[in-house]
Amino acid sequence: MSSIPPVLYSAEDIATRLKALARTLAALPDRPQVAAPILVGAFVFAADLVRALAGEGVHLETEMIWLRSYGNARTGSALSVLAAPTEHVKGKHVLLIDGVLDRGHTMARATRLLLDAGAASVRTVVAVDKHHDDAVTKADYALYTGVKDFIVGYGMDDAGRYRALPYIGQVTS
């Protein structure tokens, strides 16, 4: 795989959907107080979302969670907790952010970690929720849903490659 993956969702389309999502989240009755991005795949989406929310008057604290589930393969592996949430989330409404929700194991584990740390509530948001029939959870909010392809860019990677693409690309082989 030597060529750059083709665009599935452009940077412009992502920006448009992101603004609409920020307006939706800002209008919630129990607005999020803490952003909890899951490293490493969520960092680009999370940065854009946190800035968009600030533009809507919602200024979030940040608590990074670091889970690893893929390593260098495209298939799931054992889920490792590299950095769990701290007591900083206790009693607060948390917005859990990830890049892609495939089968949901990472999101489910991160949600449990946040609730165990005392979060008052956890809402989940992803750039892409694949909506697999056998997923253990789904995101509360997503920029895109139902994608079946392996995707890269906008923070998501293929064995470390293509994470910095400004768009979401489709890997075909």
Which whole number gives the mean pLDDT?
A: 91
**CATH fold field value of the domain at 11-20 and 31-69 and 78-149:** Rossmann fold
Q: How many strands, what sense, and barrel or not for the largest sheet?
A: 7 strands, mixed
E-strand count:
10
Q: In angstroms, what separates the terminal alpha carbons?
A: 8 Å
What is the rounded Rg?
A: 15 Å
Helix- and strand-based class?
Answer: alpha/beta
CATH architecture of the domain at 11-20 and 31-69 and 78-149: 3-Layer(aba) Sandwich
Describe the structure.
This protein is of the alpha/beta class and 173 residues long. The chain has a domain at 11-20 and 31-69 and 78-149: 3-Layer(aba) Sandwich (Rossmann fold), CATH 3.40.50.2020. It contains three helices and ten strands; from the N terminus they run βαβαββββαββββ. The protein has helices at 11-26, 43-55, 105-116, and strands at 7-9, 34-39, 61-62, 65-68, 80-83, 93-101, 121-129, 141-145, 150-152, 168-171. Strands 2, 3, 4, 5, 6, 7 and 8 form a seven-stranded mixed beta sheet that branches. Strand 6 (93-101), helix 3 (105-116) and strand 7 form a beta-alpha-beta unit. Helix 1 (11-26) packs across helix 2 (43-55). The radius of gyration is 15 Å and the shape is globular. The model has no long low-confidence stretch (mean pLDDT 91).
Compact summary:
The chain has 173 residues and is α/β, with parallel strands linked by helices.
List keywords for this structure.
24% helix, alpha/beta, Rossmann fold, globular, 173 residues, seven-stranded mixed sheet, single chain, three-stranded antiparallel sheet
